[in-house]
User: Which sequence fits this backbone?
């Protein structure tokens, strides 16, 4: 089971960030894959707090946009939200023995403890601070080789031959589809 950190989700949501393309591809691929993908409540709440913050973005996401994004991700058949277990505080005590976890840093320890207790096999993050949680296997997807296989043929690296006839056909079908009034209840 894969876990995703807040920063990965923020990058996948905010198109102006330099990590956007890699993060968008990553999140899309893992949510189309066969392996289970999990989110902790803390990660989801941090995502909302970050993307809706005017101090972080000149045009922050609205709360509705943030919640719609989460709802979309959670709609994937392999996605789930994981919770603290009955052993949570024992695990939290164990992971906080090494390092300073005062103030806001406790949230990373809480995320790590929930992931450890729920048997997350790999936690994807751009936060080097998670490396101190030795019980949790972490990987930075923004450095090093990709471990996942792209599921979208357009994400495979290399030259793509454009077929203008097919593109024109698709554009025409799209125009025809958009010209219909899908909200009308009257039969034609």
Assistant:
């Amino acid at each position: 089971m894969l876990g995703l950190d807040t920063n990965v989700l923020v990058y996948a949501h905010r198109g102006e960030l330099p990590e956007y393309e890699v993060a968008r591809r990553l999140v899309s691929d893992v949510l189309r894959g066969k392996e289970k993908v999990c989110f902790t409540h803390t990660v989801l709440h941090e995502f909302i707090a970050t993307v809706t913050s005017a101090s972080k973005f000149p045009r922050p996401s609205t709360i509705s946009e943030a919640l719609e994004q989460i709802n979309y991700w959670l709609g994937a058949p392999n996605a789930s939200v994981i919770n603290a277990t009955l052993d949570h505080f024992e695990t939290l005590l164990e992971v906080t023995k090494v390092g300073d976890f005062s103030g806001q840093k406790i949230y990373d320890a809480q995320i790590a403890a929930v992931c450890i207790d729920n048997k997350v096999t790999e936690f994807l993050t751009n936060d080097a601070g998670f490396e101190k949680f030795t019980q949790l296997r972490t990987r930075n997807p923004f450095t090093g080789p990709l471990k996942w296989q792209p599921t979208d043929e357009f994400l495979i690296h290399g030259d793509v031959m454009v077929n203008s006839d097919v593109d024109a056909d698709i554009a025409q079908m799209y125009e025809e589809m958009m010209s219909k009034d899908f909200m009308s209840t009257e039969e034609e």
About this structure: The radius of gyration is 20 Å. The chain has one domain: 2-139. The longest strand covers residues 37-40. Residues 2-139 form a domain with the Rossmann fold fold (CATH 3.40.50.1010).
